[in-house]
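Lest this sound abstract, we let one protein speak, letters for residues, whole numbers for local backbone shapes, and leave readers to judge:
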Amino acid sequence: MFRKFAAFGGCLALALLLAAALPSVALAAGSGTSAGTPTITVSIWQAALIALGYYLANSPWLFGLAFFTIYRPLVAGFFVGLILGDPAQGTLVGAAINVPFLAFGSYGGTLPIDPGFAGWVGVTLALAGHLDPATAVSIAFGLGLLGTIIFYTRMALDSVFAHWADARAEKADIAGVALMNWLPGQAFLFVASFVPVFIFALNGPSAVQDVLNRLPLWGVNGLVIAGGILPAIGIALNMRFIFRGSAIPYFFIGFILMTASHGSMSLVVIAALGLALAYLHLSFVRRDAPAQTATAATPAAEGARPAATAVPSTEPALRLTRGDLIRSWALWTFFAHANYNYERLQGTGFAHAMTPIIKRLYFTEDEIRAALKRHLVFFNTEPNFGNVVHGTVIAMEEQRANGAAIDDDAINSVKSGLMGPMAGIGDTLSQNTITPILLALGIGIAGGQAGGTTVPTLSNAVGNPLGAILYTVAISVVIVAIGYTAWMQGYARGRSFVTEILRSGTIDRVLIGAGVLGNMVLGALAATFVVVNLAPTVNIAGAQMNLQAAIIDPLFPGALALGLVLMTWWLLRRQVSPLAILAAYLVISILAAYPFFGPGQKNAGDYSYQACTSSLLHQYSPCGAPPAPTAQP
């Protein structure tokens, strides 16, 4: 299976490269001049290849490397230049556009701006219209903001496909869960990304402006609002496993710490504090009821293997092979973000990656069903450094399958406790350190000036495609090496750790401590991902006051978000369908963005940001202007 995926991804990448290398006569068939200025007419096939390139930049088919390579304007410019017959100039324009995106990062389902759209479309428009790089940079931000609409729409719709995976899990259908992770989401993504880029590439700048003018602004705002509300479902789904007993208060501690620090506290710090509190909890608080009793009432634990009281003394009957580990790692590397969505983020990707492990370790329908369901919950981490989490969980699954006393709570507590810290560490290193450094080197070689005050123009500078090529090779080698090493080390260290605690008889204390840590981190994640901002204001003593900013937040910052998470958890406990909750929250988000009242009701240009009283919810803050468009998250 690994070879099939690798061959498919390689063929798609080579198709773009080989098609771009068509004879120069075919590529130049649409070129001409206008008033002495050379222009390029983009043909239908060239526009299709450029649109395919943008889809690949957002797809999983390039072994998880698309985000670090062709999603960046430097590399996108090189490929657009190949397609249009001038890779040197394409690389130069791409380097110029990439300069303001040098510090770009996407974290936890957020996308402040889309450098992929800015790169693929911006370079196309610059080369076709013979724009200098400075002008290309000026239009790149508008294009990047337009690209976020595709992202927000995809994140909302992909949540539905996660429930399709749930339905397959109920039938113990391992292949069906895997299929639901990539097929429907990628089919939608192809249409949503290919069509607009194809139109823009074929019709030029006028198409961009026409689309921007025709979009209902309140609908776009509603998708942004939904991006802050839908994660409450994924958080609440995870709470069903660990939000119980004496560990409950730690969820609120994690939430309050994150909100009190206005989101500035690192998840690594919160996790460290959680470990300290777990130690104190185990030292001074009476032990909870046995974890096995609580797990029996958990919906996801139905059909689970009865827990043993000790690790078997003989050699495990069920052992994973290195091939199983490699296949699992390859599936995660390919498909971690294939069905990225607001509700569970990487949840279906995690379950997809676990399918080879589940096939090897479990045989009855009840066991398979339980294993699939416990891995379809909310999950999010950095997809390379964070592979330590997967390796550890795989080690726990192997011990569980051999009769060890490891239940659903233990596995999900470990996932919840480790994913946040590894995301903080991994994002800092991969997105904020390694990628910018290598990009700056590549931009410099290409002819751009990362960090400079000027950008070269097409008339007096020639780009060097070697900058894009060297960057692509370097970042690919580094990222793949990190991901593979973290995965294998997580399994090796995790296996020895799990075996040790089982033989020492401290499993119950470890499970309780993991519950404390998991609740702490989950509370912090809820404060980070769940956002509810009221827009209306009231007139008090002649002064306009925002209900949330002036009244609710001073009393309890984040109270609305916390209330939403708890209400969602309560609804799930009452057996309300997660899909029904998802549909309701999405509709509410869209309707709450509509200008029902206030000064922006008549004029569509008023109610987006400044006239916050015209809608019920606001997308960026309780009331006020949006953040300035920058490359920072």
In short: The first strand starts at residue 31 and ends at 34. The chain has a mean pLDDT of 78. The two ends are 36 Å apart (CA to CA). The chain has three domains: 2-221, 232-424+478-529, 532-614.
